[in-house]
Design brief:
Helices cover 72% and strands 0% of the residues. It is mainly alpha-helical. The longest helix has 32 residues, at 202-233. The termini are close together.
Length: 249
């Protein structure tokens, strides 16, 4: 690991960055265990999907993100934020139902799972002191999906996407969704293929959803943990993010 020098040698900040880097590196662990169980790999999972599903996945993901963005925010006025384990339990049940129904059931379950994931991310943002109904924070929540998926060989550079600034308008939000959708589509394609593993069905669907929910919850805690650290320490968020990326590499 290369040596990183902070402008202010604050040992508390350095320790927090080390913890966030450790959390980021360990986020994909549950996913890798599940995929080992179903016999999948990043290289083979997408090939399992029928060609029409693969070709339509990006469009379906973009549509799911658009739906989830509104639904997750509206639901905050009806249902309070839930602990991580509750969100994992809910998406696990959805994955079981989707896996039981094969590829058709998994596709039908997809938008509900994306909405649940986004709502969980919003809850983590609120836990760190940010308002999920603020337009900028809504976009920050979406940026969590821009991180390379748990099967990618991510060197930390995708964290830089978090710092990209766009005009906070409806067009800006939609523009961000079109940028996030292709990357998330690849991740969701792997999820779909894994949860429709022959014979395993509902069991695979439940396990895959549990693991992917855990992954994005951890990534959200890294993202908003860093933003919170910048706010509390008074240090530049962009600089702290560069320090974090250096530790991840």
């Amino acid at each position: 690991m290369q040596e990183v020098l902070l402008p202010v040698k604050d040992t508390t900040v350095i320790a927090q960055l080390d913890l966030l880097a450790k959390r980021y590196r360990g986020a994909a662990g549950p996913v890798m265990q599940v995929l080992s169980f179903v016999g999948g790999s990043a290289e083979t999972l997408l090939a399992r999907l029928p060609a029409p599903v693969r070709s339509g996945l990006e469009g379906a993901t973009e549509k799911a993100l658009l739906t989830a963005t509104g639904a997750a925010t509206r639901s905050r006025h009806v249902i309070g934020d839930r602990p991580d384990w509750v969100n994992r339990a809910l998406t696990t049940a959805m994955g079981a139902a989707g896996g039981f129904g094969g590829i058709a059931g998994s596709l039908a379950e997809l938008p509900f799972t994306v909405t649940m994931l986004l709502r969980a991310i919003q809850g983590i943002a609120a836990e760190h002191g940010f308002d999920p109904e603020d337009e900028e924070i809504r976009m920050e929540c979406l940026r969590v999906f821009a991180v390379a998926g748990p099967l990618a060989r991510d060197d930390g550079t995708d964290l830089g996407f978090f710092t990209a600034r766009m005009t906070i308008t409806g067009a800006g939000l939609n523009g961000l969704i079109t940028k996030v959708a292709p990357k998330l589509a690849g991740v969701l394609g792997q999820k779909l293929a894994a949860q429709t593993a022959p014979v395993l069905g509902a069991v695979a669907g439940a396990a895959v959803n549990y693991a992917f929910t855990s992954y994005y919850q951890e990534i959200a805690r890294v993202h908003f943990g860093l933003k919170s650290l910048a706010r509390e320490s008074g240090q530049d968020e962009g600089l702290l993010r560069e320090e974090l990326v250096a530790r991840i590499r």
